[in-house]
Amino acid sequence: MKYDNGNTPHTERFCVALFGLCNSGKSSLLNAIVGQQVAIVSDIAGTTTDPISKAMELPDVGASLIIDTPGLDDNTLLGEMRVQRSREAIDRCDVAVILFSDGVSDIEKNLIEELRRRETPIIAVISKCDIKPNVQGLSHQITLITGLAPICTSATTGEGIDLLRQAIAQRHTAEQRLITEGFCQPHDVVMLIMPQDAQAPKGRLIKPQAQVLRELLERECITLCCTAEQMADALTTMTAPPKLIITDSQVFDKVYSLKPEGSRLTSFSILFARYKGDIETFVAGAKAIEQLTPSSRILIAEACAHAPKSEDIGRVKLPRMLRRKVGEALRIDVVAGNEFPCDLSPYDLVIHCGACMFNRRHVLSRIAQAAEQGVAITNYGVAIAALQGILDRVQTQ
Ligand SMILES: Nc1nc2c(ncn2[C@@H]2O[C@H](COP(=O)(O)OP(=O)(O)OP(=O)(O)O)[C@@H](O)[C@H]2O)c(=O)[nH]1
Ligand SMILES: [Mg+2]
Questions:
Q1: pLDDT one-digit tens code per residue, 337-373
Q2: What is the C-alpha radius of gyration for the chain, rounded to an integer number of angstroms?
Q3: CA 13 – ligand 1 centroid, Å
C-alpha cells in the first residue's frame, strides 16, 4: 500500500517526529525532507512553539506524517507547555529522529531511554554539518554514549537528506503490518459476516468492515460477504469451507454454531485489537475482569474527545456490562483524549477504546505505561468479547 491520494487519515500514516534542543535545526530539516518551506526557521531559540505536522508522500514509504516539535530544552515561560506538546509526539511517532547539534546532554539521553522503553526506533542525526568543524569527533562521541550511529546532514547543502529518507524507509519496512496478518494467505477464501442493522450508517460500510474488505482484496483473497442470516445458504454454495470467517461480535454465537470444522473464526474487534495494540496483553488484561470485586476501580480511556452519544460504549454500555457482572458499587472513571493519567496505580484495570483516532504506537505507549506500573490493560473489543463469554472461542492469533 505505497500510494496515497491525500485522503489517508493521519492515524494510518507512518509517523516520523523530529526531536532536539532549541535551534538544533529541526524545522530546517523538516523543510529539507519535505522539499517545501513548511515550518518557520529562525536563529531565535524557541521559534517552533507547537508541533507542526506535514502529511506527505515519502519515497518508499507512502503516506507519512512528519512532525516538527518545539525544542526539548525550552525554558521560557511557556516552555513547559511546549515540552508537554512534544511529549504527545513521543507517544505517537513510529520513528524518532533525534538531532544532535553539539554533544550529548541529559535531555537527549533521557529521550533515548524513554523511546527505547517503548521500543520506538530511533535515527540519530548530526545537523548543520556544513558548519561543524569536527563532525567525525562528534559522531564518535554520540555513538560511544548512545550506541547510535548518526547520519550527518545539512539542510543548507542537502548533504545526508537522501540517506535520512532511506533510513526512515527502512524503519517503515520493519514496521509494516496488515490487519489480517497471519490469518490468511493470498487466494484463500475468506467469509465476512457483516450485519447491516439499524445502527449501520446509511449507504456505506462501517470503517472496520471497509478496511478489512479493502485489505483482503489487495491481498488477493477471495472474499465473500454476507449477514449471519445468509451464512448457512452461503456455505452451501461453496465447494470447501472458507479458510477464515471474520464476524461482527454481535452475532458471534450464531456464526460459531454454523462454523464448518475446517474454518478458523475471528472477529473484527479482535483483528483491530491486534492491529491497533498488543493482543496478548489485551487478552491477559481481559482475564483480570474475572478478578474484579465491587471495590475495584476501573479506568476507561477514550482516544477522542467527542461529545458522548446516548448509547456510548465507553460511558454507557461497557460500565453497564461490568457492573452487571461485578456489582453496582464498581468504581469506573472515564477519561478522553489527552487526559490519560500518568499515575495508573489507583486502578485494577484500564480499558482502552478501539483507538480509531490514534495510531498503533500511541496505544503501545499507553500499554507500556500500564506495564511499567503493573496495571492490567485491555481494550473495548476484547473486554466485550470476555464479558460475552466468547474470548475462549475466538481465534486471536
Ligand atoms: N548552516 C546551517 N544552518 C542551519 C542548518 N539548519 C538550520 N540552520 C540554522 O539554524 C537556525 C535554527 O534553525 P531552526 O530550523 O529554526 O531550528 P529549530 O531546531 O527548529 O529551532 P526551534 O524551533 O527554536 O527549537 C536557523 O538560523 C537556521 O537557518 C544547516 O543545515 N546549516
Ligand atoms: Mg523549529
A1: 888 999 999 999 999 988 877 888 999 999 999 999 9
A2: 24
A3: 26
**Could you give the C-alpha distances from 345 to 131, 148, 341, 371, in angstroms and in order?**
49, 34, 10, 11
pLDDT in tens, 45-92: 777 777 888 898 888 898 999 999 988 886 665 666 667 777 789 989
Total domain count, the chain: 3
Shortest-distance Cα residue to atom 27 of ligand 1: 43
pTM of the predicted protein model: 0.78
Nearest to 120 by CA among 130, 131, 111: 111
Tell me if 5 is assigned to some domain.
no
Same domain, 265 and 284: no
User: Is the domain of 113 the same as that of 217?
Assistant: no
- Residue 396 inside a domain? The answer is no
Contact 25 CB / ligand 1 (< 6 Å): yes
The three cell numbers locating residue 144: 560511544
CA 266 to ligand 1 centroid distance, Å: 51
Residue 182 in domain = no
Domain boundary among 249, 271, 293: 271
